[in-house]
Amino acid sequence: MGTTNRRSLVVQGDADTAEDVVVFLPPAGSVTSPYLAIGDLLPGGLPAVHCETPGRGRLADQESPGSVHSAADRWAADLAATVPGRRLHFFGHSLGALYAYELTLRFEARPDCAAASLSVSGAREPGSTPRSLLATAFAALRTPDGQQGAGEQWMDRDLRLRGEYRTAHQVVRAPLALLCGASDPFARPDEMERWKQFTSGPYLGMFTFRGGHDYFLSGQQAIADVIARIVDHSRHPERVPHPE
Q: Bridge-partner residues for 179, per DSSP?
């Protein structure tokens, strides 16, 4: 599956003719998308779009977002211009889950594209208090893309965005799926259940994988299979029970 760069997006596959597009949102500290291996394993005809953060990597000459909201605004504009009229399936891990939630809100309020599903990975619900001590330890252990100085700086910025994020606790209509690592100390499966309060649409299920917070770095085929299933179920939401 080939890739092309468009605006703040990396398009993987043929998004020009597809009805459904998976949109991957970056986790904290990300420079390039860590989900390219997953996108490569999606079924034929299901392309992926990877959102990249301005101010780093190939977008280093652009202004960095000052908030989760401003980052979502930028990606919403680029998505509307790049994949207009498509059914968008948002996947966000950790900080990326807040981006995915904000983008779902935006595309439920505008006519360019449809917010077809929201997949939340390794993150507690909007408005929850960040676990600062754990986040600090995690940042010290993790150096994105092998770039020591820059990676730490970007992680610090993203953790600040997470800490400063405020939400009006708006409820989306999109079907919701939850994904997590079984031993994730940041967002345990029982904690992630609180995301159900943020959708009035169908609940597509909790999908648990072996590993911790970065479970998605291995077992990509199983994750790609689950994402494909989520896309398929979103086409027939009447068959899926609503969250309690």
A: 121, 207
Residue bearing tokens 């505008």: 110
In the chain the first and final C-alpha atoms are separated, in Å, by 39
- Written as six digits, the tokens of 77 are 């504009």
- Specify the pTM: 0.91
Question: Would you say 37 and 220 are in contact if contact means Cβ atoms under 8 Å apart?
Answer: yes
| Residue at 7: amino acid letter | R
Q: In angstroms, rounded to a whole number, what is the distance separating the alpha carbons of residues 147 and 73?
A: 27
Q: According to the 3-state scheme, what is the secondary structure of 13-55? A: CCCCCCCEEEEEECCCCCCCCCCHHHHHCCCCCCCEEEECCCC
List pLDDT tens digits, range 173-217. 999 999 999 999 999 999 999 999 999 999 999 999 999 999 999
Structure tokens at 6: 């468009």
CB 70 within 8 A of CB 164: no
CA torsion angle for 95, 163, 62, 168 (degrees, to 10)? 80
